[in-house]
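Entry 12.
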Amino acid sequence: MKKFFSFSFLLLALSYRAFSVEIVKDGKAVSEIVLPLDSSASVQTAGSEIQRSIEAMSGAKLPIVNVASPDVANQIFVGESEATRKLGFELGNLKYDGFKIVAAKNHVIVAGKDISHFTNSFSKFKDLPKNERQKAWETFTGKKWRLPPMLDFRDFNEDCGIHMIDATGTLYGAYELLGQLGMRWYMPNPEIGLVIPKLTNISIADQTTTREPEFPVRLMGDSGNGFYKNEFLWYKSMGVGSAFIMPAYHSLSGPLKVAPETQPQEYYGTVNGKINYLSPRLTNERLRADTIEYLEWVDKSFPGIAYTCIGQPDGWSLLDSTDADLGWNKVADRGADGAFSDYYWDFIMDIRGRYMQRHPDRKFTVFAYSSTQRVPTNVDKIPENVSVIFCQNARSWMLPNRVLANREEWLAKMSHKEQLLIWEYYTLHAPKYNFPPVPVFFTKYLKQSFDGLYDKAAGVLAEVGWTSPAVREREKLVLSRPGISHLLLYIHNRLCWDRNLDVKAVLEEYYSLFYGPASAEMKEFFEFAESVWNRPEPREISASGGFLKAPDVDRYFEILGRANEKAGDTVYRKRIALITAEMEPLKQLFEKLKRTGPNIQIKTTKETPTIDGDLTKPFWRAEPHTFIPLKTIASRKVPPELLTSVSFRWANDNTALFIAVECMEPNMDQIRDQCKSPDSKEIFSDDTVEVRLETPSGIRPLIVINPAGTIFDECVMEDAGYLPSFYKVSESSVKKFADRWTVELRIDALPISGVRPVPFYPWGVNVCRQRLASKTPELHMLSPSGTSFKDPKFMANVFVRK
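Predicted 3D structure (tokens):
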């Protein structure tokens, strides 16, 4: 029996060699690349990639010609042409931007669906310099409205002449062909990111291969992924692109944002008695009518796009006071991520209905994110011509997370798979996030996310980390920290093309090919990285909590050190060195995370006070009482003429933290306390006292209260699943006097910790007073940062006396 199988294997090997198209023999080219004379930019790029990759593998440079040469034995035809049709090749009913590879006798054909979206739909403005487009748009429309930002994707590569969003099936086919020969594009860094096998002889096995992506939309955005050719082609090697355009932009910002002071003021909501240019008044008839006119101008300017985007404005977090009084703010019933859903969908359905009276065949895209992430209650079924752009964070799925439930709610109201497009946020490695260089790696939850999307979604538009302009110019790379971010993106894009992908096998091949003798150590590294990231703890890192622990840092570098030893003086070591260098700042992380605020000892008490805002009672004033003055945020000095002070007490049974704040105010008649709705972000436009806490388990309650006694309270880390959706302060009170106003709070400790703050396990705290009853706003803080009140590093440490 063993001899039978060995003989069969020999026959199979011989048949493979017998039925193949020879490309290179003994290091010499025995074939040529045939490109049609009128080839598109993407087809030309495909031919060039085949040429340069085969040369890198074998040293043989295949000539590129427009017509097959009679004296060359074999040809690689790239793209459809008259020559391929004569050979009987047809793309047929290829789905989306898929491709076919046919190899037989003396030829190989690589061709796919190629669509230049910008050539077809963006010609009116695409050739204008960026700084002239807005003016040209205003001239064209006669309106001072914002040029739709969907034009400027920053994804165009001048060297290749194509956009990332373009459908480039032939180019995807070229990479598949080269992948069959052993090429791998793991990282965008050209010197170390590619696996290039060294071959003296190259043959393409006879085949008819058809590949179609699972989703029509497979996009990645990193704030300029078209800038550099090598990085651009790395994305394309993974099949990034889109078979058609589903516009996803803040279209409502068009009539609202360019010059709001000059636009009709009825467009905008009023919050706390003042107009707020970030708050659209969606019930306003003029805004609705003008939005329809704006969208018509967009469709005229960018023809051939099936969808019209009714996108909510960016930065929308407050509701017009009149509309809120009419019951449109559903925060109490629907939570923070469904507060404005009904309000937005009332607007969407009206705009859709009116627009379809003029353009009955239109499709529409809308957003589901921030306060509109949940399904609306005023729409039973999402109309079939409406697609929802659902914003999610798969990176946090190891935590108890409402987002999955929200996504399922949408799917239950949909009829077909092109009604859902995912806008995904993968990594935090970008300047605006300032996240420590920890490997963000979660293949288990990544696969889980995709398994829930196959046949249910149009695809994924994923945001990835980007570098600062200075770094990108130095590195010729926009992707941030490619060493620790490339592998997750590679797996993501493979899953976009193959629902049956064996992720484990792909990873095993990666470890072997990319790290050679250090494969075992690097497998250990990434598996450890995934186990760390998958801990069910907050995605943030602080002195007292979070998913990353100080010993983890030592282990990361211990594994990398062993891998470095195994790698030797090779390209494998360079790859490991890149990861090590990117993670180097972690060595100082926990030292830097130590809070810089003061250490504050607080009293324990057996008494349970009446929470009434009276800070003169013995509970607060009995000796030795401690009221600590707040300092100005910038100067870090106590303003003697305007004292704000805070005091703390801890319940002896560990059930509560009590806080008292006294705000001296000579202009009590000018304080702002317009917000009367609990948990409304309108409160941030008032005089406020804001309290931020961090418990030893990393939970961060936020409590904001104004002089009217209105409370905004939540858990900043509520996605960690430790608290209910709405964290509530159990008791609060505000009292006004002629020259001051006071705040008194009881904060239940058991739901957020229950652990008594002690010197080796303190709680973090910061208190900020926002004063608007003056000519210029003022901020006073318990532990001033100089800039931001939110940074936990600047918290004070509070603990009880022994």
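Annotation: The first helix runs from residue 2 to 18. The domain at 19-116+166-212 is CATH 3.30.379.10 (Chitobiase; domain 2).
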